[in-house]
Amino acid sequence: MSQQPAPRLGLDIGGTKTHGIALDAAGRVLAEQVVPTTRGAEGVVQSALDAADACLASAGIQRRDLAGVGIGVPGQVDHLTGIVRTAVNLGIDQMALGDRLAAEFGIPVAVDNDVKAAALAAAAYLGATDLTYLNVGTGVAAATLAEGRLVRGEGNLAGEIGHIPVDPDGERCACGQRGCLEVLVGGGGIAERLAPLAPRVELPTLFEAAAMGIPDAVVEATRISTGIATAVQLVVLTQGSSRVVLGGGVVHAAHGLVEEVRRVLSARAAESEFLASLDLADRVTVLPADYPVAAIGAALVGRWVADPVLG
Amino acid sequence: MSQQPAPRLGLDIGGTKTHGIALDAAGRVLAEQVVPTTRGAEGVVQSALDAADACLASAGIQRRDLAGVGIGVPGQVDHLTGIVRTAVNLGIDQMALGDRLAAEFGIPVAVDNDVKAAALAAAAYLGATDLTYLNVGTGVAAATLAEGRLVRGEGNLAGEIGHIPVDPDGERCACGQRGCLEVLVGGGGIAERLAPLAPRVELPTLFEAAAMGIPDAVVEATRISTGIATAVQLVVLTQGSSRVVLGGGVVHAAHGLVEEVRRVLSARAAESEFLASLDLADRVTVLPADYPVAAIGAALVGRWVADPVLG
What is the CATH number of the domain that holds A52? Predict the structure, then answer.
């Protein structure tokens, strides 16, 4: 009987769905399954187990065959203890998610913030050790990998850029501030502003509608592209990121968004010698929409326990 | 004859003055001298040599007695090669400053960006390995030390936050953009806006005048304190900084500024549960105004060559 290196399981637990993936030791996808997420601490545990079991059944392996499990969750995660705090979208106030799932699985479980997990997958995909992954989905956050290590800051806080205000006259954000990046370019704010315009103007075709000159579309497209451009500029100037990978639901839903963000950055460079020297537009990249960056990232969080190079 | 460990020399080369300091091996100040800076490549070299020689004469030591020389300069500095680029305030476009000064001194010379140098001195003063030094002077920039290492990014770019726009309707910045942090809270922008109000409203007493309700003072004091508060929030959310050290000419010139920045951060926390959870006001600290943070930092840049722990 040949001894194969053990496979790993990654679980990206989002507000609406939990995406499980099983990878072999070389990182190849063995199975992938998506289940709806039930909110609340017990619901999240059950959703994680359901996604895991569905994945394992599909790959024909048992829980005890796994080398480890990695979890990505939105919210403040202490990656050292596996404790999750204020994961608003999951309905979790505070929970020792790592310990709880380790007890269920009977093997080590590592937990990290979902955007930090995605940065690991982006780095693996691109073969890079230095990049910032900028997630523009329901939430807006970034994660930077410098010399192969995640920039974490105190309490793993680094990268919570969604609540940096960039417009003093902007709309009120759920966090209580005005004009946060998240209210400007996050999925929630966009959906609210586009709702009255549908079906004339919708997110997938927003940039095409703007190119055709439909005034409402121009306003919203400009808002989103300039907001994301500002976020790119912000992470490059703060972290010195050589590459900014755009990801998240908004980026993949809106056709032409990435090109428009690059165009805004180039236009700004034309007005500013300083910005021109930074080549911001050239630093922007995007992964294929069908690359399961969050789930693969979750599986790599697991690997962190064994492989500090990726931590 | 007893063999003393060799002293180090630090030179902070600013746009108007060059501040030299000689430290013994334990970091104690042996001598300090300030000379005017002559702009341009040759002027800067001569200013550095003048400040160094004045320092050495005052300490009674020779160039050949030094273990090394460290230089802090405003501008884009490749700390690995000692090449300085676009140091606008020094009138230097590009120059191999490290090599040039090493040839003059006959000993190793290390060069770094002046704000990164100051972060090293702030860390030494506070006995900290994790902090962000936020310089609010003519320029506005930050430098973050994480686990005892400077966050550098590609090309040592990290921390150039002065050119992040925070107000779309803000004034035009010298860099070509609108509403940059630097035009909002940097010394140049402040001086320009206060000039017509003097002597009724001046920077040293601005916050006292604002407290008395003088309308022009209220407008400008609010602008500065909210701008710096935004910069603090920006670096904490991006880098996860546990401590933000405010420094630079504006911070030390304006009485009551630091307290007002803390008050703004506390007021924001009262409006936002998310910000409240971060205790931003408590992260803000300041060094004594008479601590020569930039010159001592420059001397520590020198130490980097021998002591990678501080690099």
Answer: 3.30.420.40
